[in-house]
Amino acid sequence: MRNAIRIGLLLAPGVGLVLAFMGAVLYRAVAQAFGLYDFSGTSDGLSLAHWQDVLTTKRFWRAFQWSAYIAASSAVIAVALAYPIALWLRKPFRGSLILSAMLKAPLLVPGLVAAFLLVNVISYHGFVNEFLVWAGVWAEPRRMQNDSNGFAIIGLQVWKQMPFAFLLLSGAVQAIPDPVLNAAQDLGAGKFARFRKIILPLTTKAMQAALVLIFIGAAGDFSFQTVAGPPSVNSMASYMASLQGSEGDWNGAAVVAVMLMALSLFGAIGLTALVQLITRTLGRLA
Amino acid sequence: MARLVAEDIAVRFGTFEALRGVDLTAESGSFVTLLGPSGCGKTTLLNVIAGFLQPSRGRLAVDGKDITALPPEARDSAMCFQSYALFPHLSVADNIAFGPRQKRVARDETVRRVDGLVRQLGLVDHAGKLPNALSGGQQQRVALARALAVAPGLVLFDEPLSNLDAKLRDQVRNEIRALQRDVGFTAIYVTHDQAEALALSDMVCLMNKGVIEQKGAPRDIYFRPRTRFVADFIGAANLHRGKLCGGAMSTPLGVLHCCHEDGEDVEICWRPEAARLGGDLSGTVKAVAFQGAHVDVFVSAGPETVRLQVPGELNVSIGDTLQFSVPPEGVIALEASANA
Amino acid sequence: MRKSPFNTILSGLLIAVMTVWLAVPFGMALLWSLVDPSQAWSYPDILPPKLSFERWSLMWDSTSLPIAMFNSYSLAPMAGVGAVLLAMPTAYAFGRLEFKGKAVWQTLVLVPLIMPGFVTAIFFASLLFSMGFFARYPAILVGHVVMLLPYAVRILSVSFSLVRQDVVNAARDLGASPISVFRVAYLPVLKPGIFAAFLIVFILSIEEFALAFVVGSPDFTTIPTILYSYLGYNFIRPNAAVVALILVVPNVILMLILERLLQSANPAGISGKG
Amino acid sequence: MLRKLMTTTLACALMAGPAIAYDLTEMSWDEIVDEAKAEGELTWYVWYFQPEFRQAVKPFEEQYGIIVNIPDVSSGDDALNKVLAEAGRETGDIDIIALGGQAGNRIDVEAVFLGPILPLLPEADRLSDEAEGVNWQGYGVKYWGNQTGMAYDANRVDPETLPQTLADLEAWIEANPYQLGFNYENGGSGPSFIHNVARNVLGITPDSVVDEVPDLVSVYDWFNSREDKFGITASNADSLTRLNSGEFLIVPAWEDMLFGLIRKNEVGDHIEFYIPEWGMNGGGNVIAIPKNAPRKAAALLFAAWLTSAETQTALNGVFGSAPANTAADDSNALVPNDQRANSRVWSAPLSDRDVVPGFIENVVQD
């Protein structure tokens, strides 16, 4: 009993504070989504009216789909790029140190600055357009800022998040001892068999963690969307900020917040399950 | 079963020569140990045989077929690793079944082999567990079973017992030897423990600085070491260097006799247990260590100290003068070492 | 180690590509920031007509850049110290004690990392609003401390677990007071962890945008919010270039220091996954 | 624990702020000036041109020895939200705030602001409390007039061929696909364009009377049938930045904003401006003093200075804004006076609020 109190006291300023704060924030979001704490003062009681208001707009559903699309593509591409590089750099060789340092460089650049730098380069008469037109690849400059596929944002997300995926994955890949791989090879496993039967299952957790963290980060993105995204569509975060900021609709913003958290949760579960499935399937192949 | 022939194997790492032209033949069904201090090249040679390292020179053949260029997965060998290298995400049974599945052994044959090995190695209760849940000795057995499951002609052991405690080590060592006889594979076994090597092997290859100093049956190696290195590494040896004239060398202890041709600068050695009490060699007792069945006695004369092993009943004290002799057949003349 | 020409060629190629990948955007930004205020750079000029540092001094003098830098660089160290101090007891419990539900608590402390930043920011602001709390500076400070606490807890837990019990016992055996025990047995091992935790909270606080933007709205500026104002709403390319460059340089230097400090640490240990 | 900590801090903060007890309406102007000088500084919330305004208020600071703090305010909406959020607070942060004229529709001005202040100002008879068609009942005083219009690249567009009517515009878009860009949020220039095109499509003229919002399908169709022939931009500033860099030939813009950018060479002087015959909205900003302003006298003195004929003339010179003081000189502007006839109001007939949200939902998101 005394011990439990002691542990409690030790945890209070750390975990306790975090849980109190995040719990209050979470409760606030859910409560406001269901009509409580209505600052406009029109109605203050449980209601689904705000869900009705938000969920019937095209703007919300486009934002929802857009964020889901951007988050899923960014997570998958970032991991798909980071994974082979982490495997390749598993053992050091000449130049591999410089390379992994350069791979981590985007961690140094704040996201907003990265977005600005990119917009600068891909603008209508920016470097890329001028260069490709000069080189004769494109007949005329292209409007990459208004790209409805969101390639610029996905590119930025991948650029910013790949180092993170790389750190997680290379940690996991490097933790596989050489003898284990040698043993597999010795027992007749070729390169691909070693990958799918040993490396993949042993790095599944790291891969899931990387995918989930990137997905959640990208689903909640605001800065890339507002600086480099196509202006005709919102991300969940920018829609939420616009509802709360420009229109003073806190309750509508709360509905979007709850949906964003749901998107993060289900996206995370989906990606985790997908990785599990792929690992299993590949492992079962004879 | 397989007969392995390695010819003139050399391996270079940058400017460092890890192996400098090694020849080795392991007869079908024999147990060959690669013995030597760390850095002698024994593990390098094992990795060349397994295929993890490409030799910069030389060739390997199994049953007359050249395998030098084959990747490890295509060779008819299986390795037991020092760290066991079990697959942490697979159960014991799946670990054992890994090799047969890779080699596309029929499903029921795989099951049969796994069952057999699990039973043979006393792992029946553990087949469904993950490796982390097992003790060191059990893990070692799983590693062994996993290697044997591919029914290899050649099993390679990389210091498999070095992570076990002394008692378990003896037990597993005997099991390995028994299995090897039962199953009938050719074994190449790397160790730095000379007792292990002597106890297990049909042939011991003692390696030093990238070459095989001497190979032969354990008795051969022990009783007829060819070089000072071999004499020193295997068991204990008393060494003397000097002029051999008429089969006799004079040392501070007295005159030693030896059945060897004369020479100006000859090195001879004898084993502590070759000494007999009483005779014309003598020295002062410097230290005594009672070992039960025998006593180790350290005797000095002038600058030299030798070690004698005498029956346990003998009661000597420090400061006594001890008279002893060494029969000429117990004294061996050594060649200059290849690496001297 | 076998030398493979494939590795050499591929890594050389990648290094070259990444240099271009970094050099072109920063070069463009630098060029834009040097556009002299006396002559505009507009289509179809390929290069700016006149270059000078005029715009840099203009931006520094006439914007609230100095205030934003003051805010960010005073918030960050306080958030760092606050997070480290608050994380200590929890990290001690995680690193040195065994108790029921430890794994659950260790996961729960990571909640701020997976909560979308704008959700935390907007509904924290909503709470403040209801409470009638208008002091933005302390509000943002508290927000940063809580949001970044998980990092400090993770890093310090690892540090605490590295403290050797035999050294602690030896110190107590020799009659040291609790303070001396802490100084002799704990502090030397904790020091790098404390420093790393402080620095990572410092850097992330400087980079934090959502909370500072929403809670600080409309006029409390930090480095990221002023960046957003110049890169987003009031996007004028040459000015944006100046602000971006002024703000990115100290960040890079800090991150390089952190990289040195964390080199030995396992990244998976810090992020808590993998 | 957190809540407790915060309420304690709040209590301390409240006790520290002394309530200022004086009534501006009962003081003579000289007394107000003296009180203002005693207060020594003030905070002005204005959401645009902050760097320029910091320069522009120097004469005031020198004349009265009162320091003017102009924080970087993120947007007009955010500033308005702050005023509303903090209306219940005893002492606020804001002494005086600039607001778009239409904000008067969203606020109960009597509840939030001090006043009426218009009659207190020395030059009251040359000033107005009406902006963007909204009457501020003396609680807000217009200090800034501006105009939306179309900015174009004069190097590449012949002024003779500029579209003037809706039909011209249709033909121009057909002839110059993807050379028109406009924003729908983050600034009013694009919404002004959308609003006025809608009015033209619906056949609403300035003197029409609209009792209820008509069906806007024809408006959405007009835009949707041309959706691959114009570009959506992110903000007022983004439109001009992309016009300057050659991506577009014509974009809606604010006259004062463009003027400022050209003056500082952030945009080249080949970018010119006109108000088309299809009409573009004129804007007007007011200043108002929140009821809980900590330095009311200084705020009022500043309001008087800002709206004075002298200052208004100077602002016209620096920003090209339309003076709000009838005695001021308005010779600096980007458009000739005859084009001012094409200026329209935001609220009537048919308010932009009835058009733009539908546009976002049915055109942008479609």
Automatic annotation (TrEMBL), chain A:
The chain crosses the membrane at residues 7-30, 66-89, 101-124, 206-230, 250-275. It is found in: Cell membrane. It holds the Pfam family BPD_transp_1. Residues 64-271 form the ABC transmembrane type-1 domain. SUPFAM superfamilies: MetI-like (SSF161098). Its main location: membrane. InterPro entries: MetI-like, MetI-like_sf. Keywords: Cell membrane, Membrane, Transmembrane, Transmembrane helix, Transport. It is a multi-pass membrane protein. Belongs to the binding-protein-dependent transport system permease family. CysTW subfamily. This is Spermidine/putrescine ABC transporter permease. It comes from Devosia nitrariae. The lineage of its organism: Bacteria, Pseudomonadati, Pseudomonadota, Alphaproteobacteria, Hyphomicrobiales.
TrEMBL record, chain B:
It comes from the Bacteria. The keyword Nucleotide-binding applies. Residues 4-234 form the ABC transporter domain. Pfam families: ABC_tran (PF00005), TOBE_2 (PF08402). PROSITE patterns: ABC_TRANSPORTER_1, ABC_TRANSPORTER_2. One of its GO terms (molecular function) is ATP binding. Keywords: ATP-binding, Nucleotide-binding, Transport. Belongs to the ABC transporter superfamily. This is ABC transporter ATP-binding protein. It comes from Devosia nitrariae. The lineage of its organism: Bacteria, Pseudomonadati, Pseudomonadota, Alphaproteobacteria, Hyphomicrobiales.
Automatic annotation (TrEMBL), chain C:
SUPFAM superfamilies: MetI-like. Residues 69-258 form the ABC transmembrane type-1 domain. The keyword Transmembrane applies. Belongs to the binding-protein-dependent transport system permease family. It is a multi-pass membrane protein. Its main location: membrane. The chain crosses the membrane at residues 12-35, 75-95, 107-135, 141-163, 184-204, 210-233, 240-258. Keywords: Cell inner membrane, Cell membrane, Membrane, Transmembrane, Transmembrane helix, Transport. The keyword Cell membrane applies. The lineage of its organism: Bacteria, Pseudomonadati, Pseudomonadota, Alphaproteobacteria, Hyphomicrobiales. It is found in: Cell inner membrane; Cell membrane. PROSITE patterns: ABC_TM1. This is Spermidine/putrescine ABC transporter permease.
From TrEMBL, chain D:
Keywords: Periplasm, Signal. It comes from the Bacteria. Pfam families: SBP_bac_8 (PF13416). Residues 1-21 form the signal peptide. The keyword Manganese does not apply. The keyword Signal applies. PANTHER family: PROTEIN YNJB. This is LysR family transcriptional regulator. It comes from Devosia nitrariae. The lineage of its organism: Bacteria, Pseudomonadati, Pseudomonadota, Alphaproteobacteria, Hyphomicrobiales.
